[in-house]
Each structure stands twice: as C-alpha cells, then as structure tokens.
Specification:
The protein is of the alpha+beta class. It is built from 7 helices and 9 strands. The strands form 2 sheets. The protein has a 7-stranded antiparallel beta sheet with strand order 6-5-4-3-9-8-7, with helices on one face. A two-stranded antiparallel ribbon has the order 1-2. The structure holds zinc ion (ZN).
Length: 277
C-alpha cells in the first residue's frame, strides 16, 4: 500500500498521493503567492496577513522547503517587476526589506538569487543617472587582479565570467565542383585557381574564464590565459543577451567579444551612461 506524500495516510496500491490532497496543496501554494503579491502591490504590511498565511500553510500540506521556494520566487518576481518600468524607488525598497524580515529567507539563499544583487545594481545606476559618484555596497572576497588608475572608481566585480572572441574560419569551396579552364599554350594557372575560393564564416570561440571589473571608465577582464581593458569611449556596440553581453570595440581589426554570465542590463546601463561620445 502506498502512502500519500501529503497527508501520509494510505493512498492505495501504487499511489503516492490522493488527488484531493494534491489539489489542496496546489491551491494553497497559489493562494499564498496571491496574498504575498497583493501585499506588495497594495503596500500592505505582510504581518497583517500573517494569521491567514499560517492557516493556508498548515491546511495545505505546505512544508518548510515549499514555503521558502514560494517566498523566494515571489521576491524574485517582485524585484524583476519593479525594475521593469524604472529604477527601484524608496517605497519599493522598503517593501522588499520588510518582506525579507517577514519571510526570514536565509541570507545564503538570498545570495544565490540575483534579484537582491540587481537591487544594489539599480542603486548604482540611479547614482550614475543623478550624476553622482557611484558607491556600490559590495565587498570583495578573494583576489582582486586589477590595477585601476588613481582617478578611477570601481563599480562592480563579476566572478566566473566566460570570455568568447569571434574567430573567422576560412574554407575553400569549389574544389570538388570542377573548374573549367580553357586550355591555352603559354598561360600559367596558379594552383590557387584550382583550389576554389575561400568562404569566411565566423563563430565565437571560448577563450577563458575569469573576473570582470567594471569601473566608471573601463571594463576589465582578467584570467590566466587572457586579460584586457576596454575603454567605454571605444565601445561602439553593446548587445544584451539573457546570459551575457556582446561588445564591439572601435577599429577595423577589433573582433566582437562576448562575456557570458554577466548581467547585461547592468553593464549596458553603466556603459551607456558613462561614455563620453
Ligand atoms: Zn492524502
């Protein structure tokens, strides 16, 4: 006889849950989420709904892990929504702080999610937009492999960023298709003429993994294999992706690069607002 994973009573042969228990659980999760979201949107204090929240949790078989997952998801969604329209404002920041207090999500879990980090980055963007010197509230753990100039301010440090560089692959085509050559005396045909013509295709090649330091003037990359410094004023194109940022430097010989694992929303806003061209 199988046991129901919700109520722990017999569920019948080869059964792991009662459908009514499963429904209670799913409805409870949804209700909990809706209450929290409505507190955020109506600026209602979470503690006012605490009793209701606890009743839902205890009557819907919601365990600690499920509860924490709901809380964290709500926090991520809310911050994402706040940042969509504009930079996060003080009332929104207070709601988030109050929710963190109420939900008691452990710091380690908050660190794994990047939404709190995004809030701090939003503050930096706000500073820049206001024309103030950005003062990021971050602490640097581990080594710092960058040499900044004296009048340069550090804005952010990203670890474990993968650096890709665009490479060109040249292939000769037409070799097998046969080239028609008029036979004539006294004319030398270069071997190249028989080889077909080169076709160039580009691809992104993974170069190395390292750290990225964003300052108010440059973007630096450092890794054992490759390091570089790029001035904001030399960047002519920024492509933003969900998993990273593509940068194109000024100059005929510069190849596009891609930094994977970096928050492109933040990098874009910093570079675009601090370049002088
Ligand atoms: Zn059950």
């Amino acid at each position: 006889m199988g046991k129901c994973k919700y109520c722990h009573r017999d569920a019948g042969w080869f059964q792991h849950s009662h459908s009514e228990c499963e429904k209670k659980y799913n409805d409870g999760k949804l209700k909990l989420r809706n209450i929290l979201m409505s507190c955020f949107s109506n600026l209602q204090d979470f503690y006012c709904r605490e009793q209701e929240i606890n009743e839902i949790i205890s009557s819907s078989y919601i365990d600690e892990a499920t509860k924490e997952k709901i809380f964290v998801d709500v926090l991520d969604d809310v911050i994402e929504k706040y940042l969509e329209d504009n930079i996060i404002n003080d009332a929104e920041k207070q709601s988030v702080a109050r929710f963190i207090q109420f939900s008691q999500i452990p710091q380690a879990i908050l660190n794994q999610h990047h939404s709190i980090e995004k809030m701090l980055q939003a503050d930096v963007i706000q500073d820049i937009l206001n024309g103030n010197k950005p003062s990021p509230k971050i602490t640097i753990a581990g080594n710092f492999p960058f040499m900044l100039s004296r009048n340069e301010t550090m804005i952010w440090l990203f670890r474990d960023i993968i650096f890709y560089e665009q490479k060109i692959k040249r292939e000769y085509v037409g070799r097998s298709s046969g080239i028609s050559v008029r036979v004539a005396k006294g004319i030398y045909y270069r071997t190249g003429g028989f080889r077909g013509h080169p076709v160039e295709t580009t691809y992104m090649q993974r170069i190395s993994v390292g750290s990225v330091c964003l300052t108010d003037k440059h973007i630096y990359f450092s890794s054992p294999e490759k390091s570089f410094r790029l001035s904001f004023d030399k960047i002519i194109n920024i492509d933003t992706y969900s998993n990273g940022v593509g940068l194109q430097k000024d100059g005929a010989n510069s190849k596009p690069i891609f930094l994977e694992g970096i928050n492109s929303w933040f990098v874009y806003n910093v570079i675009m607002n601090l370049r002088h061209v």
